[in-house]
Amino acid sequence: MAFLQRVLNGGALIEREMGSGRKRLDLGIRFRGRNYPIEIKLHYGPKTLPDGLAQLSEYMDTLGSRRGWLVIFDRRTEVAWDEKISWCEETVANREIAVVGC
Q1: Does residue 27 contact residue 59 with C-beta atoms inside 8 Å?
Q2: Which of 8, 30, 49, 61 is the most buried (most CB within 10 A)?
């Protein structure tokens, strides 16, 4: 959150565990009247990506957002950093989701 606050330079509201319907979004940024949802996951296997995309898509629907970010942290020691760090774009129900792997 501190990093995002510095990047946004105080011009936005950053909420942790932002209410989205009956559930909680990990990070929500409100900037110039728009919502920017960010969901954070730990890698626990092959279901992490599809489950994270579905969950974020629901939040985006509730917030009326067309773009969101899914950040997946991979703590496995047997996987090289080159395989962990990634950026790709996914589309779920006409919503654009940037998937960042770390």
Answers
A1: no
A2: 49
Mark residue 94 as left, alpha or beta (left: phi above 0; alpha: psi -120 to 50; beta: remaining).
Answer: left
Cβ atoms within 10 Å, residue 11:
9
| Burial of 48 (C-beta count, 10 Å sphere; 0-12/13-18/19+) | middle
The model's pTM: 0.82
d(CA 51, CA 47): 6
Q: How many domains does the chain have?
A: 1
**Range of weakest confidence among 15-19, 47-51, 87-91:** 15-19
Domain of 37: which CATH number?
A: 3.40.1350
17 Cβ contact partners less than 8 Å away, ≥ 6 residues apart: 24, 25, 26
Domain with 8 in it: 2-101
* C-alpha to C-alpha distance for 15 and 18, rounded to whole angstroms: 5
